[in-house]
Amino acid sequence: MTVQTLAENIFVVIWENIRDKYLTMEMGNYDNFSFNEHSIITPTLVIVGITIGIIVGGLFVLRDKRILGSFVRALLMDQCYTPETAKTLAELGFENNYFVRMHLKKGRILGRVVHCAEAETFEAEVAAKKEAYEKENEGKENVPPFVSAPFQGEQGKLHYYIPKEESYEADTRFEKKGTSIGAYIALVIGSLVIMGLLIYLFPDAIQLMDNAINLIKG
User: Fold this and answer.
1) In whole numbers, what is the pLDDT of the chain averaged over residues?
2) Residue 94's Cα: distance from chain center in Å?
3) N or C: which end of the chain has fewer CB within 10 A?
4) Residues 67-89: what's their mean pLDDT?
């Protein structure tokens, strides 16, 4: 027996053990429903999948509102509302925060509310150069399109701010209230309890539906 075959056999044994103990429902005999091995497992997988999605989603919300939200709240607290009042990561105390630096660089989540003064200046200059280039070559043939290199500023020297008119949206979106570790633990426990109840009560729900159909049929 090869190592690969042995590994496959171990995986099969583990899967069958998990399937029989945790994923297989004990269904009764119904007049209007029939279940095979796969259809019995499927509802459990759906319930487990939704529960995992809720728990993982809650973790992302916790990260966004506590870690990324702390950066947003620091900008608002220091009244960084314009390019002139914008501050660097070091000035805000986030020069070593990996998550904040990563999300500012990729433009995800934080990029929707946090503005970079240098990036906006660069974009304005590019727009002016493009307009001048197109005006200069207007009416000419075989003119290549205007191409500009992307903005590449040194993150530690960039200045960030949130426009005053967007501050309420930013404050609301990244509000810290309700995002404590305790609240997340309660979410996890509650989700697992509900998952267990749904799995446990699913056969009874099918029985009620089966009885209802029989009553309708007379």
Assistant:
1) 83
2) 22
3) C
4) 92
* Rounded alpha-carbon distances, angstroms, from residue 61 to 58, 73, 123, 176: 5, 16, 31, 10
Among 39-48, 126-135, 204-213, the minimum mean pLDDT is found in 39-48
- 199 touches 50 (CB < 8 A): no
Q: How many residues does the chain have?
A: 218
Measured CA to CA, the distance from residue 80 to residue 171 in angstroms comes to: 13
Closest Cα partner for 103 from 60, 56, 57? 60
Distance CA 19, CA 30 (A): 23
Report the candidate in 54, 84, 53, 108 with the shortest Cα–Cα distance to residue 160: 84
Q: Where are the domains of the chain?
A: 59-116+155-183
> Among the residues of the chain, which ranges form H helices?
3-18, 37-63, 69-77, 89-92, 98-106, 117-136, 167-173, 181-217
